[in-house]
Write a structure and sequence with these properties.
Among the domains are: about 105-165, Alpha-Beta Complex (Oligo-1,6-glucosidase, domain 2); about 475-554, Immunoglobulin-like (Sandwich), CATH 2.60.40.1180. It is about 30% helix and about 15% strand. The protein contains 17 helices and 22 strands. It has an 8-stranded parallel β-sheet. Strands 16-17-18-22-20 form a 5-stranded antiparallel β-sheet, covered by helices on one side. Helix 12 (about 340-350) packs parallel to helix 16. The radius of gyration is 24 Å and the shape is globular. The two termini are about 25 Å apart.
Length: about 550
Amino acid sequence: MNNLGQKVIYQIYPKSFYDSNGDGVGDIPGIIQKLDYIKKLNVDMIWFNPFFVSPQNDNGYDIADYYKIDPRFGTMADFEELVKKLKEINVGVMLDMVLNHCSTENIWFKKALAGDEKYRKFFYLRKAKPDGSLPNNWQSKFGGPAWAKFGDTDYYYLHLYDPTQADLDWHNPEVRKELFKVINFWRSKGVHGFRFDVINVTGKAEKLIDSTDPVEEKSLYTDTPVVHKYLKEMNAATFGQDPDSVTVGEMSSTTIPNSIEYSKPSEHELSMVFTFHHLKVDYKDGQKWTKTPFDFMKLKKLFTEWQEKMDQGGGWNALFWNNHDQPWALNRFGDTGKYREKSAEMLATATHLMRGTPYIYMGEEIGMMDPHYSSMKNYVDVEAKNAYQELLQEGKSQEEAFEIVKTKARDNSRVPMHWNDEKYAGFSQVKPWLMPTDQDKINVENELTHGEIFDYYQKLIKLRKSEKLISDGHIKMFLKDDPQIFAYARYLDDSDHKLLVFTNFYGEGCCAELPKEYQNKKYKVLISNYDEQSDKLDALISLKPYEVLAVVID
């Protein structure tokens, strides 16, 4: 399995990592300048969000040229130097491949607009219905209809995301061939890791029918059987030829059976999947733009189902709390005040010791949290702005709408990396594209000198590389009904040796009766975020606020 269980991947959002040329935007030379820090992290691979040529309508996920580095981020020579220097410190490169759609500035779309038949077949072009209404009633994931007028023709083109992101028609073998060429171009540059953006929505039906409701609508273009065929074809034509390739698919609204098939080694599709169900447990009635405390029991149930069933089926999970599309987990599931350190360590342990490959989002390892913005003017992201307007239309007051956006905006995690306590957080000498807050107390310099979160992450990374129970073990949850404790056991087939992980998700102490098989056992502490005294489990386990205890028993 290519040692997937021993790997830890770090995510860098290039726009916000480090600005080397004083334009307020992070860049590739800036990443090179921070290689000492990357070396300290001790990770195996870095996933970089897109830095290809793009109008930046969706922060680089609208690609105008798949073969060129956007000048705002640097040059191809900079990229080649980055790959080379990372290789010297044994860190691989994972690039973000956005292959479901391309920018309307892309040459393919421009040629299609100019009437080139070959390229018109690259997109979903449909005429209006006889009554003049749109080709179907699908909604864009960014709000509004999923169709836009195709130039001055009688046609409309499909865009499941922003109107400047035209969906590519994967039914056309020419499209797939072009996209596989893109992957192979980057492989020739020494890239062996690929993250595939919303890859499970590429299998839309050839006949695009109306939907009856939002839930059924997703099923018309998500996880359809043909996606597996496409992935197998892509694997064979590209990264499947590299024995050390690491791939992950971002799977929108997916299911466990599909995810097993996407990630099971014998299926020859992908190494692992990103799924998001656990990050929707603070969505009221399934709606993102709401404000409600997270549902702990639901979170436990989802982790239990996904972990145990993926294990039983031979699939593989990407493990994560944070990324560039999510507000900080610390604000959602932890405590940004009194227990910032302890809750950050608890959250990290809960996922890092599970079965899968952990991802750390830049800044998470120093305990970064949502910025303190005071108005919509502080936000840049198109999704947040659209959501704010929709909330106002629903009758929310400006204050209510802003409070909701503040807790869910993608910009929360896109703020510049806090390197030090300067005005612009040591990210830039000029005003950055998005303002940092809290850098006076939360920053790399301070964390490396006085902090405990970074060191704690180092311990977790070392454990994953040295402990077979963590990298290779099966998983079984216990204390499933406990309202505060999330607990699980990791074990290998041929041994009584077990790793027991206990995490308290709240700021109050708690205790619970252990299952009989774990009572009165001698143990060795593997990791804890408090000083542990005992060396034996009693009938009861008691945990302090946000405490973690991971022990090995025989």
